[in-house]
Specification:
- The protein folds into 3 domains: 2-99 and 107-135, no CATH class; 149-317, no CATH class; 340-431, Substrate Binding Domain Of Dnak, Chain:A, Domain 2, CATH 1.20.1270.
- The chain has 475 residues and is an alpha/beta fold.
- The radius of gyration is 32 Å and the shape is flat.
- The protein has helices at 54-60, 65-73, 112-122, 126-133, 167-181, 221-228, 232-236, 302-316, 340-371, 379-400, 404-422, 425-431, 435-467; strands at residues 2-10, 25-34, 40-51, 83-87, 102-103, 153-156, 161-164, 194-196, 205-207, 212-215, 243-247, 256-258, 270-273, 277-281, 296-299.
- Helix 9 runs parallel beside helix 11 (404-422).
- The strands form 4 sheets. Strands 2-3-1-4-5 form a 5-stranded mixed beta sheet. A 5-stranded mixed beta sheet has the order 8-6-11-14-13, with helices on one face. The protein has a 3-stranded mixed beta sheet with strand order 9-10-12, with no helix packed on it.
- A hairpin with a 3-residue loop joins strand 13 and strand 14.
- Residues 97-113, 139-157 and 470-475 have low confidence and may be disordered.
- The protein has 13 helices and 15 strands.
- InterPro entries: PtdIno-glycan_biosynth_class_S (IPR019540).
- Residues 135-155 are annotated as: Disordered.
Length: 475
């Protein structure tokens, strides 16, 4: 069960006449989202409808929507996962500019049913839950798959192009703000490298009409493998890696364009692969004079490149924009690249994924241990299992009460404990040996110690019998 605390606040002059009850009042809506025959998620929207306070009215009287938004944020419930929506009259000066906390809804958001599309977009949707749980639930018929992140790189032809890109400044200005916002979800590191004489592994098709080279959609999967084999970070990292590549084609294959399935040129000249990353093709203008000297100096337009990479990063994190009703307007998240409500959606998705992971890991561990009847479970392994179960249960309770941050932290602890138990060294060396082969392991280990002990016992017995003048006999 996922609970979302919502407050719908009406400014003076915005209260519609068709409210079901007088302000303030509460409304609760539940929707069950079926994942498979045994698993479902219940979304619970707990909405409070009320009028503005004196402080909120003062904030809504600001000159611009951005100033009003900043003032309102200080008065709102700042807990992760909660939503506060302000309804203002049509005469409000804030309406020409729309802030993240100020919505041009008129009376439309007064009805819980009318406001539902917006609250779902800003919290979670059936599609986002499906994307989170699809690869954890074998019976699920829901599509999409979760994504993950990490890195940047470039390819060029040093014979014809001398390419310069200010990657450090671009990362600090455009990438780091969104990574700072995502620091609650995971730890990130960013590396860059330059590959010389990079090849795509696919020969582009020359188009006589446009005097350009084309890559069709069906050939794009074959582009990645040759380049990936030369990327250093993927081989050295134990953690998920995302690759963002800027490819400058060689002069003999320029200009190079990507076509979609319909044969239409892709406007960004880029594509992405789920869980791997993205590639953008950066064409360099041909020299005006045939006598131009090579290599040509090229300064990469990092704004244009980072717009594509950040859009791909959002897609790989499952942060694609949901379709909004036409009467709703949302302000861009700006340089941070990520709105607060989008971060909430990501935390909901990761929390659900962590709980599903813990369930799968502990179930697999139990099934393995059932097959090994004589295995001994150490106390610390048992403690990790108990801790994983308790943390997962705590995460589910926190989700049901709408405490997203504590639920996410508990789910991370549950995953850590379950993996420690599953991969404990005391279990690993026994899990992959049949029972009839374990004695072959134990006997060589204890035989060097057993032989001297048996010989010493035999010597003691022999000496005792000699003292009694009895004939010796080895049993």
């Amino acid at each position: 069960q996922l609970a979302v605390p919502i407050a719908v606040v009406f400014a003076p002059g915005s209260v519609p006449g068709d409210l079901p009850r007088s302000l303030p009042f509460r409304d609760v809506q539940e929707t069950e989202i079926s994942v498979n025959r045994r698993t479902s998620v219940v979304s619970r929207y707990e909405t409070v409808y009320r009028s503005t306070t004196a402080q909120e009215e003062t904030a809504l009287g600001a000159a611009t929507a951005r100033e009003a938004d900043a003032a309102l944020c200080l008065l709102q419930d700042t807990s992760l996962g909660s939503l506060t929506m302000y309804v203002v009259p049509e005469t409000s000066s804030l309406l020409p500019q729309v802030g993240s906390s100020t919505l041009r809804c008129q009376p439309l958001c007064a009805s819980p049913i009318r406001g539902a599309p917006l609250t779902q977009v800003m919290s979670f949707t059936a599609s986002s839950i499906a994307a989170t749980l699809s690869d954890r639930m074998p019976d699920s018929q829901l599509g999409h798959d979760p994504r993950r992140h990490l890195k940047s790189s470039l390819g060029r032809d040093p014979k014809s192009h001398a390419v310069d890109w200010d990657i450090e400044d671009a990362v600090n200005r455009y990438v780091q703000p969104i990574l700072d916002k995502l620091s609650l979800v995971a730890n990130f590191s960013v590396d860059s490298q330059i590959l010389y004489y990079a090849v795509l592994g696919v020969t582009p098709r020359f188009d006589k009409e446009t005097s350009s080279f084309l890559l069709s959609a069906h050939s794009l999967p074959h582009v990645i493998n040759p380049v990936e084999a030369r990327l250093g970070s993927s081989a050295a990292s134990l953690y998920p890696v995302l690759n963002f590549l800027l490819y400058v084609p060689e002069r003999s294959h320029s200009p190079l364009y990507i076509q979609d399935k319909d044969g239409t040129p892709v406007s960004t000249n880029a594509f992405h692969s789920p869980r791997w990353g993205g590639i953008m093709i950066y064409n360099v203008e041909a020299p005006a004079s045939p006598q131009a000297s090579f290599p040509l100096h090229v300064d990469v337009d990092m704004v244009r490149v980072m717009e594509v990479f950040l859009a791909q990063l959002r897609l790989l994190f499952g942060l694609s924009r949901e379709e909004l009703p036409p009467e709703f307007l949302l302000e861009s998240p700006g340089n941070e690249g990520l709105a607060d409500w989008e971060l909430d959606r990501l935390l909901w998705a990761h929390t659900l994924e962590n709980i599903a992971t813990v369930s799968t890991t502990l179930t697999s561990l139990a099934q393995l241990l059932d097959k090994i009847g004589n295995i001994v479970i150490k106390d610390d392994v048992a403690s990790e299992v108990y801790r994983a179960v308790a943390s997962a249960q705590s995460a589910m309770v926190e989700l049901a009460t709408g405490h997203l941050h504590s639920a996410f932290q508990a789910s991370k602890e549950a995953v850590t404990s379950s993996e420690r138990a599953f991969f404990d060294p005391s279990l690993l060396h026994l899990l992959y040996f049949p029972d009839d082969q374990k004695f072959a392991i134990y006997i060589p280990l204890f035989l060097p110690m057993a032989v001297p002990i048996l010989l010493s016992l035999a010597k003691i017995v022999r000496e005792a019998r000699q003292r009694k003048k009895e004939p010796t006999k080895m049993d």
